[in-house]
């Protein structure tokens, strides 16, 4: 439980937010029984990043959507054992000149499983997969894939890949 007071410097009015004060742990009360308060809740924007170089992602990058523009790069995932609850999304935002490659942090960490819809057919990533390649010659704007980890596996799903071989899962090591 706790209390947060928010002061309005222009009027010296104070709004109080009480958390867990009605004998229930998950109650948020604004104002009191004798006052009313208007509350506006705005949606949260997802963090985005344009991929401009090869780099290693961290768990702090979780929740980001990465936009792939004019050049494909290699992006390395953090070790799956450190990534429970981590999610990344990759979107083709422009035609790019070289393949975009996503690698596990360790080539012996063959931990990518799931499927992608590629040209109307399912492409399966098996437990032996450690590399995802988005083809520079078969990419379309709007193609995307998502990776989620439970701490022992990277789960992949994706859609909108319209050309055969636009996205593949392989084992590099």
Strand order of the largest sheet: 4-6-8-13-14-10-11
Q: What's the N-to-C terminus distance?
A: 51 Å
> Mind describing the biggest β-sheet?
7 strands, mixed
Residue share in helix: under 10%
Count of helical stretches: 0
Question: Which spans have pLDDT < 50 for at least 5 consecutive residues?
Answer: none
> Compute the gyration radius: what is it?
22 Å
pLDDT averaged over residues: 81
**How big a fraction of the residues is strand?**
35-45%
What is the tally of beta strands? 15
Give your account of this protein's structure.
The model has no long low-confidence stretch (mean pLDDT 81). It contains no helices and 15 strands. Strand 10 and strand 11 (121-129) form a beta hairpin. It is elongated and about 65 Å long. The chain is mostly beta strands and 173 residues long. The strands form 3 sheets. The chain has a 7-stranded mixed β-sheet, with no helix packed on it.
Topology:
Blueprint: E1 2-7, E2 14-19, E3 28-30, E4 48-51, E5 55-56, E6 65-68, E7 74-76, E8 87-92, E9 100-103, E10 112-118, E11 121-129, E12 131-134, E13 144-149, E14 154-161, E15 167-170
Parallel strand pairs: 4-6, 5-7, 6-8, 7-9, 10-14
Antiparallel strand pairs: 1-2, 2-3, 8-13, 9-12, 10-11, 12-15, 13-14
């Amino acid at each position: 439980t706790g209390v947060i007071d928010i002061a309005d410097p222009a009027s010296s009015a104070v709004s109080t937010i009480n958390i867990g004060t009605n004998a229930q742990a998950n109650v948020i009360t604004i104002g009191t029984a004798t006052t009313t308060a208007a509350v506006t809740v705005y949606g949260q924007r997802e963090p985005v990043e344009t991929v401009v170089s090869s780099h290693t992602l961290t768990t702090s990058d979780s929740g980001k959507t990465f936009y792939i523009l004019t050049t494909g790069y290699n992006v390395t995932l953090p070790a799956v054992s450190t990534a429970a609850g981590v999610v990344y999304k990759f979107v083709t935002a422009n035609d790019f000149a070289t393949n975009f490659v996503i690698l596990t942090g360790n080539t012996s960490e063959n931990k990518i499983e799931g499927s992608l819809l590629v040209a109307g057919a399912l492409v399966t990533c098996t437990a032996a997969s450690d590399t995802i390649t988005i083809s520079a010659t078969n990419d379309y704007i709007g193609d995307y894939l998502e990776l989620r980890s439970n701490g022992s596996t990277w789960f992949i799903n994706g859609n909108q890949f319209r050309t055969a071989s636009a996205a593949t899962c392989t084992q590099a090591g």
